[in-house]
Request: fold
Amino acid sequence: MGYRFQRFANTSTLFFVLISIFFGISAKAQDSAAFQWKVLSERKAAGEYLLSFSTPVRNAWQLYAPAQDLGGVSTSALLFQDSSIVITDALRATGPTTVIQSALFDNKSLQIHNNEAVWTVMIKIPGEVPAKLLGTLQFTYGKGEEFYPLESLAFEVALEGGVQVNNRIVVPGLDINKPIQDCGEQSGSGTGKDNSKSLWSIFFLGFLGGLVALLTPCVFPMVPLTVSFFTKKAGEQKSTSNAILYGFFIFLIYVSFSIPFHLIGKVSPTIYNDISTNIWLNLVFFIIFIVFAISFFGYYEITLPSGFANKANARQGSNLLGIFFMALTLAIVSFSCTGPILGTLLVGTASEGAWPLTAGLAGFGLSLGLPFALFALFPQWLQQLPKSGGWLNTVKVVLGFIELALALKFLSNADLVAHWGVMPRELFFALWILIGLGLFAYLMGWLRFPHDSKGQKISIWRKAFGLLVLAFTIYLMPGVTNTRYANLSLVSGFPPPHCYSLYSHPVNCKEPLKDYDEALRVAKAEGKPILIDFTGWACVNCRKMEENVWPDPQVKALMEKYVLVSLYVDDKAKLPASQQFIYTAKDGSQRKIVTVGDKWSNFQTENFNASSQPWYVAISADEKLLTPPVGYTPNPAEYAAWLQCGISAHTSEK
Reply:
């Protein structure tokens, strides 16, 4: 979007400019021919290049000359993905400019281009010079009261004397539909049957999440109140149908939360993985879950703005639309309890795609809405419901401790994909142990929070649950050691991998190759097939396979007959400038290959029509597919059978 200003003070204008930069707001001119940038390079010395940017300026647009100050924000910027590239001489205009008195900036004198613009800049590239350089030019333009700050132009420019590296994405001759040996349907192979099982399992997890939300103080007291409202307001038959409609609308509201994910899924096959492994998004969720946890402990309440609830409540009535707004009101006022559970579900399934997310939300909505319909059909059941009381607050505090533990997972995700090294495996376990001990102390009555009553009697069931928590916490303790006992299968997938450790030589760590071309060279030299492991730093099921399936003796023996290469599709480490490029995909879309994860995620989608992890592919050293790929296969015997199939295919090819 653009901005139309009347006459704003510098502070107001700067605010809008900063907002546009932070959120990446971009606005295209209605006439796309107004700016048609041409980018050229000229070699001046070894590793030193003069870049020139030229464009016509048409239809009364005004292009602001570069490097001018607009109240703390520059009119231009030149960005490179490789931080080692040095801009030795800032962007400057070499073509004609006109000086105007800008009404948008308190009549400040500014230089603009009316007809044609030519900008130049000197850069220095240390080390290997790429054959083509990727970058982004940001420029500012407007006319009249319209203002478009820092519009982005992604460009690729050839560099004289640059080194052409192997930027191969598609493997020629590899046919995913023609493996050398077809071993039949494999577990996790991505067939409709397996996907159906996965959707049902996610639906069931969502259903369990909804049941937990149902037992919170925000929702549980609403069940008898709402059912009683319906039964007293109309006749028995109508009240029953209204309550059933009410439950159905609750289900429908939560399912509708997944609609945006079906729309964004058309943008890119890797969009869900990009969302779930985004560093800043994971940090935001880490903060949000900490905030929710403190709220669950009773130090403050988190609610959506009262205006939402008031507007929904004002539309309530006995008709169909009124019942819908009653359901919407429940969803809004119960947000402080359902929000964290729902957020966990959304983040946990975001990388799987839109339909798994819909399945999870459907389970969540069903378990919340179903009780209202059942108790309307069988109102006598209301007498058997436990009375609201202190136990509801206990449930809420327990959820607070769980939120703390989950928050650490989001921090760990960000740390892993960015390689910061702030959350190694042993520290992750140490913090979980502290959280477990805190929860145990609370359940035993030794630790109290604001909403706990003094002198409250601790039930035998609460103490029993506390002992169970203590047992689980003791189970976690070997996780901080550098022994073979640190491989804790019950929580595999949640902590960082064994190699991401405080210890210099972790006992359970065996680093695989992480480059496909290197794996090819090793495979050709040793006469072995290649096992490609498409994985992710933040992939839970990948860690489960590595820690629970790969150590199995039969699996381990078979894997030693392969050259294993692990390709991390969520690795945010930047590729050197010489390896960055723009790739034209099979569907015609243009994709920037800037990070390690960009390279391997596109390598997976373009060659194997898959974007989920883990994903295992067995190929020969001459890059022929040995057997159909498989995904998550938690059964060691099935995974071993698939590995053996690849070995047999490799032997037959010889």
Notes: The chain has 19 helices and 17 strands. Residues 128 and 427 are 38 Å apart (CA to CA). The first strand starts at residue 3 and ends at 4.
